[in-house]
Design brief:
Number of strands: 0
Order of helices and strands: HHHHHHH
Helix content: over 70%
Strand content: under 5%
Number of helices: 7
Largest sheet: none
């Protein structure tokens, strides 16, 4: 074996180990209980922003609103937030790449909390941040625990082991 063959094999093994670590989860069934309702909520909110579904305004309307509150360029911000919510929600639903999806969703929730809701106080009745905080807590918990049982991550981590 040549040195380059050994280096290539070591790199492949190292990459496989990193992917296995990313997918590995100790979340059990608790992660499933968090993933499914959060996924439904994120998918619906993302669909509002991206496609105008469920009473949403689509990319144009959401982009105009985001620009009006200082998130510029509004269209791009709407695309990023909507994509994080919609596709991140889909990832949570099937349990695929849950840690990176949860990271993106956490960032999205932090932006929503501090740019829109924080000044209104805690309670939803005043457009406060309690709902965003709940979704942030779920996303952070999934970032730490992983996808748990009944997930694509769990299936693939076993294949890589």
């Amino acid at each position: 074996m040549t040195t380059s063959t050994i280096n290539t094999a070591a790199t492949a093994t190292s990459t496989q180990a990193r992917i296995h670590k990313l997918l590995l989860s100790d979340g059990g069934f608790a992660a499933l209980a968090l993933r499914i309702p959060a996924a439904i909520i994120f998918i619906a909110h993302g669909a509002q922003k991206l496609f105008g579904m469920f009473g949403g305004y689509g990319l144009e309307g959401t982009g105009q609103w985001m620009a009006s509150i200082g998130l510029e360029p509004g269209y791009l911000m709407a695309l990023m937030a909507g994509s994080a919510e919609f596709f991140g929600g889909l990832a949570l639903l099937v349990g695929l790449l849950v840690r990176p999806a949860a990271l993106m969703l956490s960032i999205t929730m932090l932006v929503a909390i501090f740019t829109v809701h924080f000044a209104n106080g805690l309670f939803m009745s005043n457009n406060g941040y309690e709902f965003g905080l709940s979704l942030l807590a779920i996303s952070v918990a999934l970032m730490f625990s992983g996808a748990g049982k009944f997930s694509a991550d769990n299936y693939f981590s076993k294949k890589l082991a």
